[in-house]
């Protein structure tokens, strides 16, 4: 019997499908991957043999090759599991890509606890902290397949070094053509109403945006709190003007992420507000994220979320208690 559950394409595959159409037109584009493959990537190897390179389990070689191709004027894409793209080749990203300001787009699969049972080697909960420290690099963290697809063309036109972190899961779409302005770098998915003295705004990114929306619904039903929910899909550079405008309209700020609290979305937002406020930043902030520990727990992503209070139910309760 066929499953009644509709198939949901993953954000990585949506991106690759859009990128394939770009490669058909732009013979200057090149793809370099280290060991990782995907069904949506197989057609690159078969249809673009002069634009696709598989280097095997050699991520540093991948970045060195990408830098050489970029120096020769090519638009280069690298691809591997997110911790290997962001950490195993950190020095190469820093020097060969960012210091030289090369047109290379690093694609990492497995943001957050996507590889839940694989342990710290495959968990990607520190990549934002590391990658945002490099000058010139732009960072994207999409929350659905529609956004992933739009990023393909948008990032192809941008000559800057870039890093895109994809979730492995097939997640329902949040966007369509009428609801997304990709140049903003963030989008308001739900708008608060009610008591202006307790008007809450939740900033989230990637998979946690879906949890943030669920938490907001629960808060509305159980605590009489109706928060604004914002998807921050471009983490660097942050849209400071839009951020400041949104914060001005709210009394309480929450950041909600599947990343270490050290250096992640919460750090980005609070630092930006403090550094650009002449009187400091007086509004209360609650940061929800991964504590400063390694995770060896088995049992899946939901279990890990529950342990650290990252599930929507725990987050809603934490926000409600904090507001009261």
What does this structure look like?
The structure is a single chain. By secondary structure, the protein is of the alpha/beta class. It has 2 domains: 11-166, 3-Layer(aba) Sandwich (Rossmann fold); 185-323, Rossmann fold (3-Layer(aba) Sandwich). Helices cover 39% and strands 19% of the residues. The protein has helices at residues 11-25, 39-47, 59-71, 82-88, 90-99, 127-131, 145-156, 208-222, 240-248, 265-275, 301-308, 312-323, and strands at 29-33, 52-54, 75-81, 104-109, 138-140, 162-166, 186-190, 200-204, 228-232, 234-236, 252-260, 285-290. The strands form 2 sheets. The chain has a 7-stranded mixed sheet, with helices on both faces. It has a 5-stranded mixed sheet with strand order 7-9-8-11-12, with helices on both faces. The longest helix is centred in the first third of the chain and has 15 residues, at 11-25. The model has no long low-confidence stretch (mean pLDDT 94).
């Amino acid at each position: 019997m066929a499953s009644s559950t509709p198939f949901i394409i993953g954000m990585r595959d949506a991106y690759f499908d859009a990128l394939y159409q770009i490669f058909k037109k732009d013979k200057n584009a090149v793809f370099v991957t280290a060991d990782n493959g995907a069904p949506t990537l197989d057609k690159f190897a078969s249809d673009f043999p002069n634009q696709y390179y598989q280097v095997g389990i050699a991520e540093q070689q991948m970045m060195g090759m990408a830098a050489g191709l970029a120096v020769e004027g090519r638009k280069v894409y690298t691809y591997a599991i997110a911790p290997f793209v962001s950490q195993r080749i950190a020095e190469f990203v820093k020097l060969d890509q960012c210091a030289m300001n090369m047109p290379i787009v690093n694609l990492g699969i497995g943001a957050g606890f996507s590889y839940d049972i694989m342990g710290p080697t495959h968990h990607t909960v520190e990549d934002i902290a590391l990658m945002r420290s490099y000058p010139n690099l732009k960072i994207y963290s999409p929350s659905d397949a529609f956004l992933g697809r739009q990023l393909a063309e948008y990032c192809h036109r941008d000559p800057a070094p870039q890093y895109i972190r994809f979730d492995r899961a097939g997640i329902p779409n949040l966007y369509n053509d009428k609801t997304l302005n990709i140049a903003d770098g963030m989008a308001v998915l739900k708008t608060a109403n009610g008591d202006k003295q307790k008007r809450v705004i939740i900033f989230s990114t990637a998979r946690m945006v879906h949890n943030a929306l669920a938490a907001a619904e629960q808060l509305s039903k159980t605590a009489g709190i109706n928060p604004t929910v914002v998807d921050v899909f471009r983490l660097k550079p942050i849209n400071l003007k839009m951020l400041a405008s949104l914060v001005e309209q709210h009394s309480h700020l929450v950041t909600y992420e599947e990343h270490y609290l050290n250096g992640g979305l919460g750090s980005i937002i609070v630092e930006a507000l403090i550094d650009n406020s002449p009187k400091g930043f007086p509004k209360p902030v609650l940061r929800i994220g991964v504590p400063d520990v390694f995770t060896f727990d088995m049992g899946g992503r939901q279990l890990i979320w529950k342990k650290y209070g990252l599930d929507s139910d725990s987050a809603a309760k934490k926000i409600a208690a904090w507001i009261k």
